[in-house]
Sequence to fold (167 residues):
Amino acid sequence: MITRRTILMGTASVAAVAVAGLGLLKREGGQATAATKEHFEVAKTKAEWRKILSPDQYAVLREEDTERPWSSPLNKEKRMGTFNCAGCDLPVFASETKFESGTGWPSFYEPIKGGVELGKDWSFGLLREEVHCRRCGGHLGHVFSDGPKPTGLRYCINGLALKFVPA
Fold:
């Protein structure tokens, strides 16, 4: 006999399994990505990274955190130059590809060739393309397919993950 209690208990069980599954997906995709799993040219211990990065940079680059929108001074950076990885100084984006996306994070329509790699990120239960530094594996942000021409891509990048070097 199906009762209201049976339906509620079944719904609660399905929700618990879904939440547990999302946690597993996050660990498999979002947390165990380039920053933690593979070998890179620039490899440091957690203690070494903490010495060279601010706590906020460490959270973004090494723990895949996201800075608050509109908090980066790089949103207003209009000069010619390059945006380098804050972890290893590899040039990852050129100022010519930067655009105002209205999202609150520095955005680019194309990376510098050989600067970034992409990975899968399952955080929030959604599959997104994570952008990380090719040389040190630092988490930079994500790429979306709602950008301007010529690529149609929007590399939505944490300002804390970048260092601007004027031309």
Summary: Strands lie at 81-85, 91-94, 98-99, 107-108, 116-121, 128-133, 139-144, 154-157, 162-166. The chain is about 30% helix and 25% strand. The chain has one domain: 4-166.
